[in-house]
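FAQ
Q: What does a multi-component entry look like?
A: The components come first, one per line:
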Amino acid sequence: MTDDVSEADADLDFDMELEDDDAGEHAENIPLGTPCLVVDDLHIVFRVFGGKQHARAKRSGAPVKDPAPVKRSVVKRLLGAGRQHVGAVSEVHAVRGVSFTARHGESIGIVGVNGSGKSTLLRAITGLIPPHSGSVYVDGEPALLGVNAALMPQMTGSKNIEIGGLALGMTPKQVDEKFDEVVEFADIGSFVDLPMKTYSSGMAARLRFAISSAAIPDILMVDEALATGDAAFKARSKARIEEVRQQAGTVFLVSHSISTIEAMCTRVLWMHRGKVVMDGPVEEVTAAYRQFVRAHRQARSGGRAGGRRRKRNEKD
Amino acid sequence: MTTDSTTSATSGDRGTPGRGAERPPLPEPPPPIVPGTTAAERRALAEQHGLTKMGVRPPLWSYVKDVASRWAFIRVLGTATAYAKNQNTYLGQLWAILNPVLNAAVYVIIFGLILRTSRGVENTIAFIVIGVFLFRFVEQSVNGGAQSINKRTNLIRSLHFPRAVLPISNVVSHLATLLPALVVMGLIVLASGLLADYDPVYITWQWLLLLPAVALMWVFNMGLAFIMARAVAITPDLDNIISFVLRFAMYGSGVIFPLAHYVGRLPESVQVWLEPVLTYQPIAVYLYLGRSSLMEEDAFVQDPVMWILGVVWAIFFFVVGFIIFWRGEERYGRD
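Then the predicted structure of the entire assembly, as tokens:
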């Protein structure tokens, strides 16, 4: 239960960088094409095992008050414990009725506090998490930038390039052709013949990004992939994303860095508790969101009397 | 923004805590926007531009083609998984062979040498070793298939591919570990002929029949893996029951001792139906095929009926399993 609690806590935290090295840059405006993605009243509901009510209320952002410790008989407490741990299935409504249309050549950023459903929405419009209700219509095949889950740390870099490329749907021949390009883009040199677990985290992140961007999809989804890597690498990633847009593709970007969003997106969706609260041109939405984040931060730092540890302990 | 009292600050929070200050109300984001189009308009728009609906199960035939086109991925994923499993040990890939050998040794010692349950069989060691090696393949495929979807939720949630790739590649990885083990199995059978009590064993052309027997078993195992993958993906609790069912299957298939002797002791009315069930159920059939290939004994002569049954069971389980799995395709990854 402790883990659940801390996770739920983290969900409501901000993890924002307001200042960044790519501040001031702006995404190129590319003339918009025809619609390539239509999302119609999308709902995503997760089944959660072993956590009742409490987790659900937390996730949805509803005010959860810890029940005052009432004295209960031993029998009742045992029964209660049973209900918590046996057959406890609850549902988390992560995305609640989202509708929007995206056009060819658009670059859409998704912002929102942790737990607002950004990543879930991104995976749902990629078709990776089946919707509970509602539907997503696409032109072409959307792909999430990220093959991390397919890669095996015990295997060598070159084996992982093969696995990742095939996982992305490339043929063995295409993987062969792209091999050198991937190695060069990842900038790992002779490390390519060593197991991936021996890589530094920066190297591993670069290789992952290089593998995932080897295939250029019609609709590219990026989820915080740019968080790691040095400045030079960031610039190259941005170039990759521009490349997709130039080929009339559409890019979706989930990032905690407002300046990254400003630098790479033309349109922004602001998610809050599973719903879209704002959708518009990048300057407009980020300005409003920035203000919200600042106000939120101030409000919280003002009220933070006890500090983290004590609150945790009370909770446990 | 309403949050509960436990929401705490993190590293992202750079403000200095004001001691004792009352917490001001947290700011609210704007209210959710109301989309400018109705559901019908959006659907019409999607149709107008020829967009396809996502998360719809593909028709069976195109699904089959899709899976077939991913063969390279299946093979690489399967062999890499098999290789990675033994990567973090000093003996490394040797464990792929040592594991089944030790496993077989336990049964040979307990059932073959101490309990002497193998009545009616001349070469007890060959009988048990072949049974244990081949049954292990079924056991691993069932266990691996059962977890192939649930353990790989992350992969499912980050890439598009026909999900049938996962159970298939899982069985492929077990096949990849089985093949070198089969060579060792053959050597053990050969060596058992050198023991004083046993008739000598010779390599004959019949040994080659082990390969089609294993191939049929592989097809059958994929069918089982499909069924288990769907069942456990939807009801994770079933994963706990599998090991018990498998133990039943092991004793009910004559893996370590022939069942004929024990069935013969049952009342006539039970024998009538139990005997054919135990003899012709798929696992028993494949063990028979394996043993008849390597062992020269009256109890295990080449039997065309068994070969036909082996083919029938393999195709039946594969087709049924594949369809069962395909029918759940759009649900994998949702939890």
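Q: Is there any commentary attached?
A: Sometimes. For this entry: Chain B touches chain A through 73 residues (CB under 8 Å).
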